[in-house]
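G., before I forget:
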Amino acid sequence: MRRVFRIPFTRGHIAREVDDELAFHIEMRVQRLIAAGWSVDAARAEALRQFGDVANVRDDCVTMDQQRERAMSRANLFGELQQDIVFALRTLRRNAGFTAIIVGALALGIGANTAIFTLIDAVVVRTLPVSHPEQLVAIGDPSRVSSFSQGSPRIDLLSAPLFNDLRAGSRSFSGMLASGHPGRLDVRIGASGSELEHPRGRFVSANYFQLLGVSASRGRVFDGGEDQNVGGSPVATISYGYWTRRFHNDPSAIGQTIIVQDQKITIIGVAREDFAGDIVGAAPDLWLPLTMHDALFPNLRLLDDRSSSWLLALGRLAPGKTLEQARAELIPLISRSIVAHATGPSAKAFSADRHTWFISSGAKGFSRVRATFEAPLFTLMIGVALLLVIICANVANLLLARAIARGREMAVRLALGAARNRLVRQLLTESTVLAALGAGVGLLLAWWASHGLLILAADGGTIPLSLRLDYRVLLFTLALSCLAVTVFGLAPALRASRVELASSMRASASSLAGSALGHRGQRAPLGKLLIAAQVALSVVLLVGAAMLVHSLRNVQTVELGLDRDHLLIVDVDINARGYSGNRLTNLVHALQNRITSIPGVAAFTYSVNGIFSGSESGTYIQVPGFVPRQADDSSIAYDNIGPEYARGVGGRIIQGRDLTVADEARYPAGIALLNESAAKFYFPKGNAIGQFVRFSDSIAVQIVGVMADTRDHTLAGQPGRRIYFPYLNTDTALTTVGNLRLEVLTKSEPSALVQQVRKAIVAVDPSLPIDGVDPLTRLMQQSIREERLVARLATVFGVLALVLAGIGLYGVMTYAITRRTGEIGLRAALGADRIDVIRMVLFDALRLVGAGIVVGLGLALASTRLLQAQLHDVGTVDPASIAAAAVVLTVSAVIAVLIPALRASRVSPIVALRAE
Amino acid sequence: MLDRDGGLLRGTLDVLILKALSWGPRHGYAVAEWINMVTDGALLVEEGPLYTALHRLERNGLLVGEWGYSDNNRRAKFYELSREGKQGLRAEVSSWERYAHAVGKALSATTPAEA
């Protein structure tokens, strides 16, 4: 306000001074000339002539004076700012406890926001640290980073020959690379007989590093020549992180030979430090040339196999080409390649427009972590943003209370001549200093919290993801702090500037007539408003948290169709020991004998994918009389299972029969089970038993039974269609059998049998790698780790909000009661008893809380629909959650207010009246 | 320290102003009178530019201006050398002496230099 006035004022005063100065000069000259005998008029004319161009000189002088004035006021401002900061620091140090509380609260809010944003930045926002990431095009489903699919050709993953077709046929790209997950690598480093290690590896085309523009930090990276000679390049490039962790940055690691899958591989170099591969959240330890795959895994030959899809590709757009052009070129290219090499009728009928294509920008790389955590992270972001607003409201309230307490100080300073805007600036400086301190501590907190969150999110495993406080995170924190200052600093500052000199000087305590919560006075309404707002926002957070918890409970207690409390799932790596054919049959039977003889084991069966193992298989089937309307209609999940599977997993046969040992013996059998969903979908008349379905375009199998639906890989959503084939029947064993999962049904707590089952397996084959022996409940928990994480964190935020609202309420009521001591004393003197006083105070506070809850519920109803995508079986309006939030808040509010209310009820009339 | 872009004349004026003020605060008219006296009116063809120079020197921090009263009791703006102004004068005087000595020596030379 003031500035607007000052500029013209200043200008005028400068011009006036210059005019005075010049007038003085001319006047002196005129007098001198008159004294020398000139006439008055002649003297004036001569003086002006001697002076020269008056107007010009005047303008020059004014300009220079203005420049000087501006420089001075800048210096002044800077000096005042310095003073303000020093003064603020001194004031804050004097009230160390107060400062610590505010800085702590702000650090909590800013830290929580920064932590979540750091994760969002790392997972969702940041592009790959490669040259020109914007030119990259991702081909394949970005979330299927470690998938492997066998059977009909797919378009969400590429087979090695399909990738070669694309690389040779595409004109949109200046280059194209592929990478694929190798499964578990068995690696020995150092002297023979050293422990087996399982670093995370990735097969990549030899042009990988060149195309991405990633150099070596030591040694060299693949130079593109490794593809020339299939199986003839036993080399590896390792990541900087692995070099540090495993080799302690020892330069002699380069050139060292390590044993990978019993073969010698030479480490040729370490990739650039900031490069963690093309998969976000799955930083590999070492990269192997794609063409080495079959040499390293002779049991799983993939390089010429068109039915094995396992690669994701990145293309670098040629100059002038766009993503759309690449897409328009790739779709027919992929379709042609698939049709040209199809082996059966379903693939020949492949039609491009019946599929969802996965051709997208590759700037951010591929990531399963992103697909999984993107939505939860944004939910949490909203949660912590609300938390910060609550904290700001709280801090504003504390500062407001103090500003009122400092009313006298302000008044004295005003009376002594301090400028009002200077006082406002002083208070804003204090707020800014507080926010800066909060942001500083918050950043530290965020650094710690984001890593903590990553560990929580990994749920026992690891998510190799580099978290950095990059410029985006720092900018975010800065913006957040500025916002916070505006929110919490402005109100007290403006409030303080309105200090009435007279009234503040007169007294600090209020009079009998003054009502504390100020229906009349303008003292507390802002504080009340802030409390109500805090309560309202807490309601939103609490309702959200309650809904997430409710949803989690729904998921956890959903009917599985399995015996959830008595299943032990064992994962053994038969591929590592090369089991197949008769050796595999013998192994399975030996395991069965050993394990079923353990006391407490009720049943035993086995399958390829197991239950809640994270791996699934899918295929397409043809059903006579069934006309698919979409490509998806023919797709079905499948598994290869052992005899008496339904009994072994605690499932139920609802039509026909289970598989038996006899089915395995009757080789080749050509029989299968359907689950209920599949039976209803393909045979709506309920006549599935005895029918034949075809899969892989040629093999026909007869349906012998229908099993009740089971939720065996995901708890959310409805179970999908599923078909089961006998495990040991090689004709129907679709996969190159790479896995064997044993399902052990126990009579009591399954975790008690883990050691005995392990011993039984070792007794059969001591060298058979055991990847896991886990009770079903644990695997289930792992499968819903995002839900659990989000629900847990949302609850933490909700409780924090609740506590903060409680503290705020407590503070405001305590303050209000102090101000009403006189009134309460008078009431007591006039005969009000303690209960009346308590009731009065409680009523006052609860009116505030009630208003907050009502507003909060409105906000919650409007905003929780944002959560809908993450909820299972919870409606947009969830009465249970709303009731829970309202009750928890009201009870907390009563507790927060009860202490000051009790204190008020003990006010002695004499003391209260004497204080007046 | 002084503005040189005005060429010899302006540089000279600046130095003379500083010199004029080296005996204590004076107002612009007194400075003009002193310069006219010591240069026989050769330097200040017009008096206006003196004020431009005074305000420029004030802006640049060599002078400090303050309002006061003149001998005949009229309000006038007095200029005084600041610390920088005193240093500037010293530096200018010594460089002027070097310069004058060099030019003087050159002009009083009696033989052409060897090519």
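The first helix of chain A runs from residue 2 to 35. Residues 1-9, 504-523, 732-736 of chain A have pLDDT under 50 and may be disordered.

More on Monday.
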